[in-house]
Amino acid sequence: MKRQAIITFHYNGMTFKRAFRADLLVERELLLEIKSLETTRPLHKKQLLTYLRLTQKPLGLVLNFGTETLRDGLHRVANNLDPSDSPLLRVNFPD
User: Fold this and answer.
1) pLDDT tens across 79-91, in order?
2) I need a surface site. Which of 13, 32, 47, 89 has the fewest CB within 10 A?
3) What kind and span of H or E run contains 75?
4) pTM for the whole thing?
5) First to last CA, the chain
6) Would you call 88 helix, strand, or coil by DSSP?
7) pLDDT of residue 70
8) Can you list the residues of the chain whose pLDDT is less than 70?
């Protein structure tokens, strides 16, 4: 597990060095975005999905420790699922 992992990515033949920092990177595959807010907004999940797409990682989690229970603050975000898979597997919006 690596905290504040510096992420470099390649896009359209260009390299973006030190483009952003992932809060946690587990086994080089799972990105975790850590928050401490009353509510998690769709923007936070979209931010994580952008990070997943840029790094070509399959899965990420938004962990919000500001909610009443951890269950309320845990959101799974998946990247590059098969189009036939349920859209509910991509981002779990509790709303």
Assistant:
1) 877 777 766 665 5
2) 13
3) strand 74-78
4) 0.75
5) 31
6) helix
7) 87
8) 86-95
Indicate the burial class of 63 (C-beta count within 10 angstroms; 0-12, 13-18, 19 or more): middle
DSSP secondary structure of 4-64? EEEEEEEETTEEEEEEEEEEEEETTTEEEEEE--SS--HHHHHHHHHHHHHHT-SEEEEEE
Token duo for residue 43:
């923007």
Q: 31-43: b or e for each residue (b if 16 or more CB lie within 10 Å)?
A: bbbebeeeebeee
Q: What is the reported pLDDT for 88? A: 62
Tokens found for residue 95 = 């709303």
Q: Which amino acid is at 10?
A: H
Q: Structure tokens of 47?
A: 């931010």
Distance CA 65, CA 88 (A): 23
